[in-house]
Amino acid sequence: xxxxxxxxxxxLRHLLESLAERPDSRIVAGATDFIPLVGAxxxxxxxxxxxxxxxxxxxxxxxPGWLCLGPLTxxxxxxxxxxxxxxxxxxxxxxxxxxxxLIRGRATLGGNLCTASPAADSxxxxxxxxxELRLASLDGERRLPLEKFLIxxxxxxxxxxxxxxEICLPVSPGPVGSGFFKLGRRRAMAISVANAAAWIRVDAxxxxxxxxxxxxxxxxxxxxxxxxxxxxxxxxxxxxxxxSEDGDWLGVVxxxxxxIDDVRASGAYRRRVAAPLVQRMVAKALERAEIxx
Amino acid sequence: MTLHAISIKVNGQFRAATVTSQMxxxxxxxxxxxxxxxxxxxxxxxxxxxxxxxxxxxxxxCLVLAAQADGxxxxxxxxxxxxxxxxxxxxxxFMEMGAVQCGYCTPGMIMTAKALLDANPRPxxxxxxxxxxxxxxxxxxxxxxxxxxxxxxxxxxxxKAEDGSWEILGxxxxxxxx
Lengths: 293, 178
Description:
Helix content of chain B: 25-40%
CATH class of the largest domain in chain A: Alpha Beta
Order of helices and strands of chain A: EHEHEEEHHHHHHEEHEEEEEEEHHH
CATH topology of the largest domain in chain B: DNA polymerase, domain 1
Shape of chain A: globular
Number of strands of chain A: 14
Number of domains of chain A: 2
Helix content of chain A: 25-40%
Shape of chain B: globular
Oligomer: heterodimer
CATH architecture of the largest domain in chain B: Orthogonal Bundle
CATH architecture of the largest domain in chain A: 2-Layer Sandwich
Strand order of the largest sheet of chain A: 4-5-10-6-7
Largest sheet of chain B: 5 strands, mixed
Structural class of chain A: alpha+beta
Order of helices and strands of chain B: EEHEEEHHHHHH
């Protein structure tokens, strides 16, 4: 592993000051991506700040209208939290599908977001759930919708000196449901070939609001805005009745994606599976919205 | 590179050392403490041969920086047997069921099994398979390993019912040094 200086941040203040001193520092928490990537020479950080002791970044909080997660929330904590399972089912499912139980106990949601892999699993779930991020620096704070945070493979909208401080998931009143599905080569230790998440709010038997997200089919995790628009306002019963055939809305899923060939699958295969994945997750989210109606 | 003075409670004993910033917990355990029961397999988090119990949870020690582990409590395969050297019921079950072939994955498998049984004393075969899904065995497949963990669960339950001796022995070394 290449040599680097390591700072162990004691608290948020210490973290922000250390980062302001040297904005090129890389932040490490669960280290489950960090160590393999530095070991392979793909990352060559000169200075690294460990944030695992920053207690201000480790929480799960239910606020009026929001479910707020600290970036140090581990995948296991998110998968097992009764609150997340109920309010943000897609996120709990996504987190349970990542790597293996040993890695899920270390890997953090903040790490998954800031690594900004197009194949991340928790990210489509958070995107479908409408996540907003709170970013902090010595100069102050700002809020950013998750979609604006993801710029490209490995690239985020974090400015020099800025850290992810909070992940905020809006909690909607009324019957809502969400779901996540991962298509991988095996059930454990697989990086997604493609994954999909859906969030739906039902009102009076129609789809009142909907957010769909796909992973591993574009340079970033993406929203399927055309399919969302095609489904918004539709009667639930019509979608369910036509579940066996390819709904007319499914064709537009391909318009929002640009998959590539890589070691895990071909672009053509990803293009082919994207719509069925979305269809399944729409059905799952609707089913769950019905339960809470 | 920076140097870090760390103190980690390993198998019940506090062990202090100065480590470099890029040293992993795996390297610390093997190269400084000479606990070579912790196996160095892929060193990138895929194989699980280096699994130890870290603050009560099974983790891959190659994915933790030694400096991050300052103040933590770590249990390795070397700390699993009782004070008189008697093997832990999980170790005995692995031997009896023939769950060991080349043996390289075994310490990691056993530590994962220990963490599982501590949290869930009577897991189903399905739960065992999920628990060991991050530990690779390339020799013999997994059925005997799953059976060994099932057997160990039964044995621990009956030992606990008798007099609770293994409940004490399982954590024995830690208690002795506290």
